[in-house]
Structure formats: C-alpha cells, structure tokens
Amino acid sequence: MSKVAILTYTSTHHGQNHDRQAVELASYAADKGYQVIEVIERTLSGLRDNTFKAGTQRLLELAATNRVNKILLKRNIALLGNNAAQALSVLNELHRLGVSVVLTDFDSEESLTLDRKLSTIGQTIITALSTTIAWKAEHKQFIKAGLAEAKLRGKQVGRPAGTTKDATEILKKYPKVLKRLKKGVSVRHTARICGVSVSTVQKVKKLLEAD
What we know:
Elements (H helix, E strand, L loop, with lengths): L2 E9 L6 H15 L2 E10 L7 H13 L5 E4 L10 H13 L3 E4 L5 E2 L9 H33 L10 H11 L1 H8 L4 H8 L3 H13 L1
Helix pairs in contact: 3-4, 6-7, 7-8
C-alpha cells in the first residue's frame, strides 16, 4: 500500500479552503487505496513569515524517514517551495529519496514511474521550473541594467527622499495591524479586528512587503 502526504494550499488574498482540498485529496487517496500519513497545510500571506518553510521541512522529513512514498496535491507544483528555485530543489530531493509527486487535477500524473524513474510529466515539471528560474534571473539582470543606466543619467532611483521615515512612522502607528498581518490574517479580517479601514491595512501590508 502506498503511503502518502497530502499538501494543501490557501492564500489570504483569495480565500481558498484547506479543508475542502484535504477532503478531496483524502477521497482520491481512499479510491486509490492509499494510506494518508499526514496532511500538511500551507498558507501564503504575502509576508515572509508564513508556513511555507515549515511545510517544506516536514515534507522532506517524511520522505527521508520513509514514512511516505507519494505527495498528493491538486495542481500547483510551486507549493513545494517559496519560489521556483526552491520548488525545483525540493522536487529533486524528493525524487532522490524515491518519493513521487501526484497532481490529481492533471489526470493523476506522477512525477516518477513505478520503477522510480523520472516520468514524462516529471521531466515537464522540471523543465518548466528551470525555465521560470532562468527567466527570473534574466529579468532581474535587465532591471539592474536599467537602474544603472538611470543613475548614470542622474535620475532618481529607489524610494524618494523622506519616504523611509514616513514608512517607519506608519508601521509604528499600527502595531496591532502589523502583528496580525505577520500572522497571516487577511486584510479585511485585520481591518475589522483592529477597527481601521481596509485601505489602512493595505497600506501597512504594502510597506511590510516592500521593506
């Protein structure tokens, strides 16, 4: 019997539901005769201190101790990391440990074959992640070159003078908002709890993400 870990994902921006995904994936596992060892929830809040790192560590721990041989997720392979580079690294490590990733929304395609070799979909995923990494690196270099050229022409680059101080003052003014955003609470819920406007919470959130 295959032993699996279920990986679910939600975003505070889009209001997805962990429970619904977990139920659907558990139903899929039952139909296949898989034993569900653990359900790992990952929430993207738009801030740096989210559950992604812990989720990745737990996945690798389950794989390294031979507690699971498959990871079930619906469609987004990027759930394996905080970015494409980390997702690719985690995927390669899972494959090294003989653990396959199953995408249930894509005809239940697995990243490894029965004899633990890279499957067609597995190679496609790796190629897609590698392409994304290369594109982001090229885009970053393009931006750096543009900023360097702007500086040579004497143009203002970065934040206008005085904005850093203003940002610091705003963050200090709303400590309760700051605390809840760091915990991954949604913008609307934070506004309701703290008794401030949604636009105020959005302003604080934008400053956090830009910091």
